[in-house]
Specification:
Length: about 550
């Protein structure tokens, strides 16, 4: 297996040393057998194929550099596609197929780096296929994917037997469901069909304890807004199964990157970055299962504030760019002053909840990069700017979910109840204040700094309701936090520029609600460097965004 390119490997080592990270295993590995080949099955439809991703773009994402090359230490057997199938016809080195990026690439590298045992991947995937029909083990229809996948797996394992290679089937990664939501019968029966699907695989493969990892649908798109009730129905079916089956796990993916296309921009495939992170999610879940996932501990010692001192608390909140979806720590070295942002700042206490709880701090940490894919948000430059210009003590608490739309932050929420994060957000703010108070500080809540939802700008109904929904969020938060004069600083980048949505002047709409609210400061016309893709700001822009938000606060105190 080819490792990362040397420059990125060296940079990662430097970053770890700079952050003073303490790494330790969560649990002992459940099996000490490091000789037996561990076989993983990847199956599903287009987002398992890797549709709309490009191998040539992998180099743009530093944490995943080098994955365009074959991984010679990982065996790979596959049948991919519908009418025109691409097939390995036996075992080959793991590598991209048809110039697209499947989640197996990043999965394999991460797992191989964490365990000593050899691994292999068997993949069968085809876009536009149904669990209710194509993948139905009892009565396969259409492209008859279940018998095809079963035959592929059996043939691949038979070749291992012929070579006298000892193996065990270790896990089954499944990402599918988008097509079932367009068939009322399949949508309503998704949970029961999935339960039968898992049971049949365990029976046919003679693996009663086979673990399944069920990937969440791609909800960070137009479909995540327009087809929200249907996607929610599929997710509920998946969760019924993963809740009842102790060997099945629901894998969140709504927080991963989504490629931005032309026009209004958002479609229903992850794209290159999303696929790389998609595979990382499966690897994280598997390694956690066997006790090999590592916990990163960044203690804040000593506590930076004297007992009885006042602390100014800043709440950062938002979606893709507040989370820092495309800002990578490896790129900070190319930005003036960027390396300084890598250094933990022990004078600023920092706590966070990212991706709707996908990654959270266990306690207060020194302000430092905290993203789950070597990413960071505007909090670094925000904190640095404030500490240089604002007297007194500073603490930052950040609550984000890059996969949300504004409706998910409103008190009313939507039909997709599990996507409503308003209660968690309010509780997060309360907890941050209470924890500081318990440590003997006097808390001065300076405000909530919210970056307007990017995805909403590309879908006409959501763009039209953005200002109204934002107003309801602000009003209810003040009520629930018992702070009627709580300041909100709402930053807004230029929205999607396309004739299909440009008739909705969302900037003016938000300006109007700000004009009627003395405690709502609208930070617009931000001088952010032009982003590489629509909506999503990259490394230099995220650094600049943090500075601009801080300056907006300092200029409106």
């Amino acid at each position: 297996m080819n490792p990362c390119k040397p420059i990125f490997a060296i940079c990662t080592i430097v970053v770890i040393l700079c952050l003073g990270v303490i790494v330790k295993p969560l649990f002992a590995e459940t099996s000490e057998d490091n000789k037996t080949l561990r076989v993983f099955i990847f199956a599903g439809q287009s987002n398992m194929v890797g549709s709309d991703s490009k191998v040539k773009d992998i180099h743009r994402f530093p944490p995943f550099a080098g994955l365009e090359e074959p991984q010679s230490d990982v065996r790979f057997s596959y049948s991919i596609g519908r009418e025109n199938k691409m097939e390995s016809n036996g075992w080959v080195d793991l590598q991209p197929v048809n110039n697209v990026v499947g989640p197996e690439l990043s999965f394999a590298r991460k797992v191989s780096a964490a365990i000593d045992a050899p691994i292999a991947v068997i993949k069968c995937a085809a876009g536009g296929t149904h669990l209710g029909g194509d993948w139905n083990p009892e009565q396969p229809l259409g492209f008859k994917m279940y018998p095809l996948a079963l035959q592929l797996i059996q043939d691949s394992l038979a070749k291992l037997d012929q070579q006298k290679i000892k193996y065990r089937i270790e896990g089954f990664m499944w990402h599918q469901g988008e097509n079932d939501m367009f068939n009322a019968e399949y949508m309503d029966a998704y949970g029961s069909n999935l339960k039968k699907f898992l049971a049949r695989w365990r029976k046919d493969l003679k693996t009663p304890d086979l673990r399944f990892y069920i990937g969440e649908l791609c909800t960070k798109t137009i479909w995540g807004m327009d087809l929200r009730p249907r996607m929610y129905a599929i997710s509920q079916g998946q969760k019924v199964v993963t809740t009842a089956d102790p060997l099945a796990q629901y894998i969140p993916t709504s927080h991963v990157g989504v490629e931005i296309g032309g026009g209004v921009g958002l479609h229903y495939h992850y794209g290159t970055l999303g696929q790389l992170e998609h595979g990382d999610n499966y690897a994280t879940a598997y390694l956690d299962t066997i006790g090999k996932q590592q916990a990163v501990v960044k203690p804040l010692k000593p506590w930076p504030y004297q007992k009885g001192e006042s602390v100014k608390l800043f709440i950062l909140a938002g979606h893709r760019n507040m989370e820092g979806e495309r800002a990578f720590i490896q790129e900070l070295g190319a930005i003036p002053g960027g390396m300084k942002l890598l250094q933990p700042d022990p004078t600023i206490a920092y706590r966070y909840s990212l991706g709707g709880g996908y990654k959270t701090s266990n306690s207060w940490e020194p302000l430092a990069p905290s993203g789950y894919y070597d990413t960071f948000g505007p909090e670094l430059s925000f904190g640095q700017t404030l500490s240089q210009k604002l007297p007194g003590n500073i603490a930052i608490a950040k609550f984000t979910h890059s996969g949300t739309q504004i409706i998910d932050w409103t008190p009313a929420g939507s039909v997709a109840k599990t996507r409503n994060i308003y209660p968690d957000f309010v509780e997060f703010v309360r907890a941050a204040q209470q924890e500081l108070t318990a440590k003997g500080q006097t808390v001065e809540l300076q405000g909530i700094f919210y970056h307007v939802g990017e995805n909403d700008m590309s879908f006409h109904p959501y763009r039209q309701q953005a200002a109204e929904r934002l107003a309801s969020l602000i009003a209810k938060s003040r009520e629930d936090l018992q702070r009627p004069a709580l300041k909100w600083y709402v930053s807004q980048q230029a929205p999607t520029d396309d004739e299909r949505v440009n008739k909705v002047d969302v900037v003016t709409a938000i300006s109007e609600i700000a004009a009627a609210d003395d405690n709502l400061i609208h930070l617009k016309d931000l001088a952010i460097p032009k982003q590489e893709k629509k909506l999503v700001i990259t490394t230099a822009g995220i650094v600049k965004l943090g500075e601009l938000i801080a300056e907006g606060y300092l200029g409106n105190r």
